[in-house]
Amino acid sequence: MKKNDPLRLTALAMDARAVKTLSMFLQGPCKNQGILVNESNAEVSFIDLDTFKAQQVLEENLKKYPKRPIIALSLTLQDFPNAIFLKKPVQIESMLKVIAEAKLRLDALEYTANSTDEKPFKPLEEVQKNYSSTQINPVPRQHSSKHKTAISLSEKGFNKYIGSIMDIDIRDQSQVKKVYYDPKYYLQGYVQKALRLAETKNCVLRLNTGWKPITIYPHNREIYVDADDKQLRLICAIPIKSLSSFDALSPGETQGPSVTVVEEKKGQDKHNPKMTQNFESFLWKLALWTSKGRIPIGTNLDSQFHLVRWPNLTRLLIIPHSLRIAALMARTPRTIMNLTEILGIRQQYIFAFFSAAMAIGIVEKVEQQNKTVEISTLTEKPPRHSSNFLGNILRRLRRD
Amino acid sequence: MNQYKIIFSGPVGAGKTTAISTISDEPPIRTDANASDMTKQRKSSTTIAMDYGVMNLAGNEKIHLYGTPGQERFNFMWDILSVGGIGLVLLLNNQRPDPFQDLRFFLETFSSLIDKTEVVIGITQMDLKQTPTLEDYHTQLKAFGLKPPVFEVDARVRDDISILIQALLYSLDPILEEV
Prior knowledge:
- By secondary structure, chain A is α/β, with parallel strands linked by helices.
- Chain A has 16 helices and 14 strands.
- Chain A has a 5-stranded parallel β-sheet. Chain A has a 5-stranded antiparallel β-sheet with strand order 10-7-8-9-11.
- A 6-stranded mixed β-sheet of chain B has the order 2-3-1-4-5-6, with helices on both faces.
- The radius of gyration of chain B is 16 Å and the shape is globular.
C-alpha cells in the first residue's frame, strides 16, 4: 500500500456511538490516516477489548481473517498474536503510531493484494448499517398513550380546548368567587378518590360513574378508559349528579358512582393500548378540563405555594406558559397572584396550571415560618447570559 | 461571536448522540473543528473526539451542542468541554443496572458547571423499564439540594429534546420571553 493511503479499519465490539467517535477521530485529529470501512473491505481489525463480548468477537474475527492484523484497544496491556496494542486513553500520537505499524505489517505480508481485490470502498454511513445490533433505531418505538410526547397548546388552542375566562380583580369578592370550582362534584374528584383507594388497598378497581367504566391499575399506575380525549373533555365539564340523570336514558345504569374490585388482569389483554394512560397524565388532563382555568375551592389567594418537583412536561398536556410557571414555582414559593404579576400573563393560565399541579400532588403550601427551611438548599442564581440570547434559543426551538 | 455551549452528558447508551442529532441544524461534524478553541485551554484536548452539533439562531448567532464521550478513555476532557457551557442536559438510561449511581457520578463530575448554571435531566428508555420512577429520581436529587426538571424523554423525538432544553432555559431565567 502507498504510504499516504488511509488504512482501512473495521471497528469491532464497539457500539454505534464509539464507532462514530472513532470515525471522527480518524478523520479529524488523525488527518485521515485511517478510515472505517465494513468488515470485508478492511485491512486491519480495530477492537475494543474492554467491551462486553469482545473476546467472542475477537475469536470469530481471528477465525475469519487469521492473517489480518489487529489493533487492540484496552485500558490494560494485553498480549496475543497479530495484535498491535493501543492503550486507553487514545492520543493522536499513539493512534498514528499504531496505524503506521499496521501499515508496515501489511506491506510485509502483502496482505492488501490478497484480501481486498476489486472490492469498492463503502462510505461510513453504509458501514454503520452493519452495526444494526448496536445502533440506535432512528424510528421511535410505537408508544402506548402514556409514553406519547406531550401536546403543546398555543394560546389560541388553549381557548378552544380549555375555554376562556376574564381576569379577576381580587379586591372584588363577587369576582373572586367565580374563580373557584369544587373537583369533588366532577369526574376529577371521583377519579382522585378512586386512585387513592386503589393505592391504599393495592388492588385493581373499577370506577363506575354512570359514564364509561374507568379501571385503575395501581401496580403500574395505569388507567384504562375506553374514551378518547374529546369524550373525556366533554365529560369533565359535567357534574356527576347531572351525569346520572343524563344516563337515565340507559335503564339499569342510573345508580350513583361506585367502586368495585376487579380481578387482576381480567380483560386487560382486550384493552386498546392507546386508551391506557398513566395516573399523572390522566389526572393532569382531567384537572385542566374540569378547572377550565379556575382553581380548587379552598385555595387561599394570599398563601404562598411552590412545586415540590417539576411535572413530567414531556408527557403531559402543555398549556401556554407551563414551563415558565413551573420554573418560577419550583424556584421560590409565591402567591398565585404574584405569579401572574411577575410573568405578566392571563390569570387563567396560572389557575389552570395550578389546578393540574394540585391534582397530581406536586404543589405545596408554604407556611411562613417554614419557608426558609423548605428552600434553603435552593439558591437562586442570577442569569449569566442575556435574556436576548436565551430568548433567541427559545425562538429557534419553537420555530418548527 | 459567542462560543456558548449546551453540554449533553450521561453514560454510554443514554441517547446523547441521538439527542444532539435530533436538535442540531447541521449533522454532527468532526471534532477538530473546535480543537483550536480547546487548545487554548490545554493542548492534549486536541486528541479527543466528541459529538458536536449546532443550532443556528437569529442574527447569525449560534449555540453549540457538545456531547461528552461516554467512554472512560475520553473523560479527561470533560472539564475543558464545560468552559462556556450555559447549562447541562444530563441524559440517563433507565435500563442501566444502577441509574442512581450514574446520576450521582455525573452530578459530582459536573458539580462546578451545575453550581454556576443549571441542569435538566432526561430519562430515556422509560417505556422499556418503568422503574426507577421520576419520583425516585427527585428523591435522589434532594440529597444534592437540587430540584431540576426531570422528564421522560425519547432522544429520537424532537419535541422531547426541545422541551427539555426549553426547561433548561427557563430554569436559567423563568421570566424569559421569546425574542
